Amino acid sequence: MGRSSKDKRDIYYRLAKEEGWRARSAFKLLQLDHEFNLFTGVNRAVDLCAAPGSWSQVLSRKLRGRKEKAEKDEAGEEVKIVAVDLQAMAPLPGVTQIQGDITKVTTAQEIIRHFEGQPADLVVCDGAPDVTGLHDVDEYIQAQLLLAALNITTHVLKSGGTFVAKIFRGKDVTLLYSQLKIFFSSVTCAKPRSSRNSSIEAFVVCQNYSPPEGYVPNMSNPLLDHSYDVDFNQLEGPNRVIVPFLACGDLSAFDSDRTYPLQLDADKQYQYTPPTQPPICPPYQEACKLRKNNLLSREDTPSVCPTQSQDEPEPPVEST
Ligand SMILES: C[S@@+](CC[C@H](N)C(=O)[O-])C[C@H]1O[C@@H](n2cnc3c(N)ncnc32)[C@H](O)[C@@H]1O
């Protein structure tokens, strides 16, 4: 397989490299912003689960770019962006990095310290666990990560603020929606054009943060999921928790499920572009080293280690 074959199969992977984004996920946030105007009035933003950093790049370009144009907004506030991930991330202009775990209260404290006690206007989370291929397990872990993101968000988000997070639209999604609706007056499930239809991945856009009266943020709080019972997701009719579903991104945008010819434009010759920023110290590095030395015994080992891959895998789960 030639190195350009992925460029053919995955138009957003290709465009990400050509436009200098570290991952194709950048387009998901850009398309969500196109629909929801996420960045208007935002001076303090948090990117949870940020590595390799394409969402942080979007935040940096949009928020700092806007600021450079307007110099200072009416309130004269400076733009601050914090990115958190378990993994190390190559530096980005105007983005403070915290290598840490979003489930830890110390991470929340570090974010608040960076904002000098001020709450964030926007929290985004594209967090994904390493998928196992066991759909129920993957959905469960993703749901736990979303709840952890919501939990840390309750520590750092201002009242009225916005939270955007990746969600798997699996069979327990109704419970997640209902938990989110406890904290936000508006919850919408959105599917950007750059997120493949074959993936159950979508994004919840939660607006107007308004926690229940007396709610005290607490990392060990299972976010009120004690109200869960097994019949919850079977609720029908008016009892069902319905959140609007929105396909978003400009409809003329490329279709992430299609294969495109390399020659996209009649008057622009295709040229292979290498990845913008390969991951630094990725968790699979050790396995690649072992494999190179024939020390890794595993069935169906892929023929190439993805040391140059800048693309995060879409969850290999059922199509929606
Ligand atoms: C799909 S990638 C994020 C891609 C990123 N939005 C971008 O645009 O480059 C998911 C990330 O979630 C991170 N992650 C998973 N669990 C985490 C946790 N508990 N705390 C912090 N980061 C976590 C992983 O390390 C991984 O880098």
Automatic annotation (TrEMBL):
Domain of life the protein comes from: Eukaryota
Ribosomal RNA methyltransferase FtsJ domain boundaries: 21-209
Record region (Disordered): 299-320
Main EC class the enzyme belongs to: transferase
Predominant cellular place of this UniProt entry's protein: cytoplasm
Gene3D superfamilies attached to this UniProt entry: Vaccinia Virus protein VP39
MF-aspect GO terms: tRNA (guanosine(34)-2'-O)-methyltransferase activity
Binding residues for S-adenosyl-L-methionine: G53, W55, D85, D101, D126
GO biological process assignments: cytoplasmic translation; tRNA nucleoside ribose methylation
Keyword S-adenosyl-L-methionine: yes
EC annotation from Swiss-Prot or TrEMBL: 2.1.1.205
Swiss-Prot/TrEMBL catalytic activity: cytidine(32)/guanosine(34) in tRNA + 2 S-adenosyl-L-methionine = 2'-O-methylcytidine(32)/2'-O-methylguanosine(34) in tRNA + 2 S-adenosyl-L-homocysteine + 2 H(+)
Keyword annotations of the record: Cytoplasm, Methyltransferase, S-adenosyl-L-methionine, Transferase, tRNA processing
Active site: K166 (proton acceptor)
SUPFAM superfamilies, A to Z: S-adenosyl-L-methionine-dependent methyltransferases (SSF53335)
Family as reported in the entry's similarity comment: Belongs to the class I-like SAM-binding methyltransferase superfamily. RNA methyltransferase RlmE family. TRM7 subfamily.
Subunit structure: Interacts with WDR6; the interaction is direct, and required for 2'-O-methylation of position 34 in substrate tRNAs.
Purpose: Methylates the 2'-O-ribose of nucleotides at positions 32 and 34 of the tRNA anticodon loop of substrate tRNAs.
Record protein name field: Putative tRNA (cytidine(32)/guanosine(34)-2'-O)-methyltransferase
Organism for this UniProt entry: Echeneis naucrates (Live sharksucker)
